[in-house]
Please model this.
Amino acid sequence: MDNNKKIPDLDRIVRHVRDLPTLPRTVLKITSLVNDPQASAKDLSGVITDDQVLTARLLRLVNSSFYGFPKKIATVTNAIVLLGFDAIRNLLLTTSIFGLFKRKSEIDNAVLEKYWDHSLGCAIGAKIIGNYIGYEKIEELFVGGLLHDIGKIVEILFIPDQFEKICAATKEQNILMRIAEEDILGFNHADIGQSLAIRWNMPARLETIIANHHSPDETTQFLKETSIIHISDILCRSLDIGWSGDDVMPALNEQAWKELAIETDDVRMIMEEMQQEFGSLKGLFEY
Amino acid sequence: MSTSLNDLSPGMILSEDIHNFQGLLLLKKNTRLSDKNIHMLKSWGISSVRIVGKGTEKYNKNTKSENELKVSVLNEMKKKFSGLLEDPVMEEIMNTATELIVQKRMKNG
Model:
């Protein structure tokens, strides 16, 4: 896959799509603090607590079954000390994402919700699989899961006419949505997502996860993380959590499966937890 | 009626809150048991818990409507997974998903 050749095409589309969201200022500020070796927990906490809504959302998430901590975390500073800067940054991103892609009256919001359900399900699966294999940065995996299909959300909201054609072709030919996207647009939702990740200055790891979640063996780095999202996507589709736009399953990438070394006996436990956690976390997010 | 931990199976549902010896809440009433949380209870030294139902019946007793639902869900699944079932992992995923979806739909009525 020649990424360099594709990106200019995407930039053209992405530039012409009006009102493509930028990250909230607070999240941008947090990101630069997180990258500043001199920044303290107090600095970070100060920026967050300036925004009451963000603070409330963050604490709600931290105190939910996301972590299942036995004791309540009362302040942002406590959360930062407990979880670390990176985790907090990713949690803030998590709580902010849905609000960036606002529902529009001309589109079918019930359909949009199903795509978000799938993204949330994949995020939850990624967190569960991450915990299972002992991967530390589970908050980043969660963001990766939320954003892996963000390209589809962009299509629904910003190029709805073409999206309708893509849906029709997907259904008529009974193919994966990305095949129809490639036919009609010349690129697919993973490419759109990658372009958005670059615009948002996301870490290379997230960009790779989003770009390669269909074919993890095509990455030269971050195979583990990309494999997690790839597998979580498949489990989520099998459990009918939300909808990914197509009625067929993608093949399970052999290298991805080998990379994570998940015991087949443990698949059931992972899937049960995904189903359960989706039920309990969905109420936390508005979309 | 209390059931010994050794007789618990995934899918059973707690009929009481479970606390450890310090009074810390481990699992809430109405939690559906899984291998993971049964294991957790064992590691806390819990020896028995109360569950919904007699506990002596096998939880997955197959009622007629459950069987019908399972057949219809499995048919949908097979279409979805068509061409991919030579992979034993995909087969496992499909079968597990079928069971979990049926369980969920039966629970929600």
